[in-house]
């Protein structure tokens, strides 16, 4: 067998399997999306519903909520496969583990990152954002949320099966690594409002995405193997 | 090769024991000299008066905080690549000192900021990235504490340190860039060229901090070795262990 075939087979198999599993537990997916919506709704209540301040806050709030939603959904990425031994079988299989993991990460993004991107315009309207800003925000989220899934997978794999693992340790490990994505993503909106255009931010976000795509599957599979030892 | 002899925890334990007093004494002597230069010999600053003298603590702590992270990641890489236990223990023993240096740099920075900038905290690029560095250190320590099996903890922390070290420059530049976009008005330090005697004091203090870090790290490393090798025969033969038992 050509090794290249193995990569694609593994990727497609893992992607389809995880998507099917996700679609069979739609309620869980719905809860995660609701979490995102609720977090976004909390800010006007806590600060000030004045449209002028919402306009300033909106993009940042949507980004922070996207970070938190991604973080909250991360344990799901490996936890059940780890618990029932599927992950161990994946690590033992002749198919390349990084490709299997990239498939799982892609499914994770499609079920948690993509809804965040698609909901952004609706929530932006609540914050009375300008139409051109909404586009910039969506594009930024579209490039940025896959980076969140990729980086988050490393943390999810490192904390597999830990007693105190849970959310808070994962948050401590992963949120600092999310910061550049937050800065470049939310900065795109600021740049457009300042008349600079968002090209530089999008280029940097894309560079981050490519770097994460190249590195994260390997770091994650190393972490998975460590956790399975 | 004889150099690799000390990759064995048992060998390095005694070597580290011999090195600790040297580094500790050197650090103490240099700290006394550095502080004497910094607090008495160095002239008063025209714009900042005496408050600038905190740089003799602040700058070495900030340098060590970044340097130690890279050293820790280096030993993490060694631990993963060569599968040597001592490298991972070295990384483990560096982390608390690194976190301490980061906290010290932030703390002294805040104390310095109040009289010179008029505020304890500003979302200045350097301060923000130093704060994130503190989170990275604390994350590694927390991950270590959450894992019971020390071998797994070694490898997991090494992976995290390596992911972190790739991220540190990205974080630094992103924060820098964000800062220039958001706050044009951050007060920058007066660009007055630094006096020679001040520079000398600063360099002496940097070495004092450096040797202190080495000494403390080695002491911690010896404790970690004893803890991990508690069941080994060579530990039981140690004079200090016999005394305790």
Largest contact between chains: A-B, 31 and 31 residues
The share of residues in extended strands of chain A comes to under 5%
Largest sheet of chain A: none
Rg value of chain B: 21 Å
Give the count of structural domains of chain B. Answer: 1
| Main beta sheet strand tally, sense and closure of chain B | none
List the SSEs and their pairings:
The complex is a heterodimer of chains A (about 230) and B (about 240).
Chain A: H1 3-24, H2 26-46, H3 51-73, H4 75-83, H5 86-92, H6 97-126, H7 131-158, H8 166-193, H9 199-228
Helix pairs in contact in A: 1-6, 2-3, 2-6, 3-6, 3-7, 3-8, 6-7, 6-9, 7-8, 7-9, 8-9
Chain B: H1 9-41, H2 55-82, H3 85-117, H4 125-146, H5 150-182, H6 196-228, H7 233-237, H8 239-244
What would your notes on this structure say?
The complex is a heterodimer of chains A (229) and B (245). Chain A has 229 residues and is mostly helical. Chain A has one domain (3-228). Helix content of chain A is 86%, strand content 0%. Chain A is globular, with a radius of gyration of 18 Å. In chain B, helix 4 runs antiparallel to helix 5. The relative contact order of chain B is 0.17. With 245 residues, chain B is mainly α. Residues 183-192 of chain B have low confidence and may be disordered. The two termini of chain B are 36 Å apart. Chain B has one domain. Chain B is built from eight helices and no strands.
Feature tags:
heterodimer, A: 229 residues, mainly alpha, B: 245 residues, 8 helices, 79% helix, globular
Brief description of this entry?
The complex is a heterodimer of chains A (229) and B (245). Chain A is mainly α.
